[in-house]
Amino acid sequence: MQRDSDRAQTTQDFAVGISVFLLTVGFTFGFLPTLLSPFGSPVGDDITAKSDRVAGTMINDFAVDGEPRTLNATELDAWLNTDIDGDGTALRNDEDDLREYFGLRASADINVTVMNVQEGGNRPVLQPPTLTRMTAGDDYRSQTPAASTTRVVLVSGGHCDVQCVLVVRVW
After folding, report:
1. pTM of the prediction?
2. What's the CA dihedral at 69, 43, 31, 21 to 10 degrees?
């Protein structure tokens, strides 16, 4: 009688089987996150919340009474030219003052811009006559992922061609 076909599982068979199983599970858990990473956002929710908060603050602080989403051009221009900390630098050129005004950490970079949407879709920075360019903060150079919040607004005095947009970027 031959007993070769009736042999039970040996320790070596068990070790090889478990090793193959563990390698397969390890490879799956190691490879799966990289497979799904292109669909994830490179910007955290905290940065997006900061961007939304800054846009909301701008609309609340510079709104024309009785006109929703209309920014007062004169007040906005005066604010951009204000020297908050007395160092001789206007807010538009002093990102530290801008961060302090909105309560952001010193490590955050911010840019606030009001753009004039023109016929054909061009979006230059709004520069009303006798007022300065409506932008403040550091220039965003696409070097890092940024949270961007855009709000459609009007600017008092009829300075918008088609419409204006308030764009806030935090990175």
Report:
1. 0.70
2. -90
